[in-house]
Design a protein that fits this description.
11-stranded parallel β-sheet, alpha/beta, 22 strands, Rhopdopsin 7-helix transmembrane proteins, single chain
Amino acid sequence: MPPHMLWLLAVLVSAGDVCHCRTYSCPAICQCTTERVSCNRHTQENSQATSVTSKLRLTHLPFRDVQSGTFKKLINVTRIEISQSDSIRTIQGKAFLSIHSLEEISIQNINQLMAIENGAFTDLPKLRYLSICNTGVRHFPDLSTISSMELFFFLELGDNMRINSIPANAFQGISKEDMYMNLVRNGFTEIKSHAFNGTRLDKVILKDNMHLSKIHNAAFEGAVGPAVLDVSSTALQALPTWGLTAVKVLKARSTPALKTLPPLENLLDLQEAELTYPSHCCAFHNRRLHNREKTTIGQFKNLTKLCNKDNQPDFTDVSGQELSDLQEINFHYPDMELCINSRPFKCSPKPDAFNPCEDLLGYDFLRCITWVITASALMGNLAVLVVLLSSPQKMTVSRFLMCNLAFADLCMGLYLLLIALVDHWSRREYYNHAMAWQTGTGCSVAGFLTVFASELSVYTLTTITLERWHTITNAMQTDRRLRPRHVVAMMAAGWGFSLLVALLPVFGVSNYSKVSICLPMDIETPASQGYVVALLVLNMAAFLTVCACYVGIYLSVRKPNMATRHGDTRIAKRMAVLIFTDFLCMAPISFFAISAAMRMPLITVSQSKILLVLFYPINSLCNPFLYTIFTRAFRRDMYMLLSRCGYCQMQAEFYRLQGLSGVALDPRNKRSRKSHSNQFQGYHIKLRGCFISKGAT
């Protein structure tokens, strides 16, 4: 080998030795080999150390195991740190044994460490800090033999992504005094029953365990505390039912799956809550009001006027006798916590304008009205569809449009039914169901139904008006009348449009989860705001189109030289009243909705519920009755349908004979046959006109 190559090899070997010495140095009180390190009473006494060693720091250990007895009966050592090793696989049982001066153990950044054997930490009476972080440990370490006598013990387990659960009695035997557990960023998916049994817990921090989805109901059974519980940024779906009575601070931020709270009776001492959803703060707000009402009975009722809205004393305009009574009651009956003994309660996020602390429908009278409108809309529109679709009469353009209108209004009735059922199911506890409802499939279905129904209804009413206008303005040109295939194409476009605008919030353009009634009120992004504004503008454009069409119709009717057919004229006049009535019902909704979409709301969400229940579905209630049910033609079709089932034979025969006589009334008059197709519309429009005039008076 050439001399210069030998020289280079020697340099590299020397550099390797220097690097090794820098990364792994043997403490003076220990004995080290290539396979193990021993730091015990014997090595300590035999060492040549000139000063007392209180801290051992072992980094980059090159061997696989920290063997039994490695750290045994050391004296004066208060801290041992093992870190930055790519070789260690196991810490064997009794590796840390009977070190009565040891206060802190830190095991950090050993990614290849897979196992900490049972009894690895034994007889450590002064230990007050144990940290096991960023390791590859696969099972929760055994800590039952630590037997610390310190007044406060801090346990830290973090970034151990292969530990998937905390078993029963996992912390029993660590200490009988208060403990602070910082169990963050691990691979936990479950905390099992009695996991914290036998402990006194001050704080339990479980945040950032992204896969933690279940804490067993009895996980805290047998434990005292905790006073602070933090489950932020986890996948928890529910908190344990038992063991939370001592919790004073609860943190559950960024925990979207946690949509329900445990019974409030299990959180009696709670003073501060940081939650994910505003509706959960309503639970505690309502409970405090309820508790105040329970204590304000009999002679104590008058004293509650001394309490302000935060349940703190307000001595403004208070007589000396009232103040004396209040102080005497609190002295003799401290458990009542009447005003001055009550503790302030903090909760965030606070309920906002879109999610106030109230039930889904909010008011009792709205519940009654909603059920009435729902029942009428469902029965009325279902009856119209059944009768019209089962009628032997030819499916004319008018019948086809009426069927589409009835279907749209039936969907609105289904939306109201969903809202009414959820309100009944969650009454007085909506806060516990709010997020499950608003972020779940049910609210998306309800929102889809209402937007689809309202847009299809508006489109159908506009189509009816355009069809009437076209028919009357082209009365003498029968070849230009709309054929069924034309109307089918128009309604197909209407269905496509309605489906599109109803699906957009499902795919992120606005959303249905903003408010409890599942309407697309989210205008946070430009796309969402544009969607809401465009929808309202289109509805207003439809209204203006209807207005323009009927202005044209009336101008045509008033021309003496305009030879319109009598049936079409009569239909136009009556239908004008109906269409304008429908759109007048929408006017207040459009007005307030546009102002809200422009970020200038004029009413609150609570007030908008009144508007939406009283005006929004009124078309679905009235349309089947005004357009169909109150007509003579509907009665005829209904009796014909019932006669086929064996009922109302006489009434059906009467209408059958009357229909035949109407056809043969004047065989020389060709208009009688041509106008027969309009008799259905003519008769029911006439009766509807009477119904509206009576309602107006």
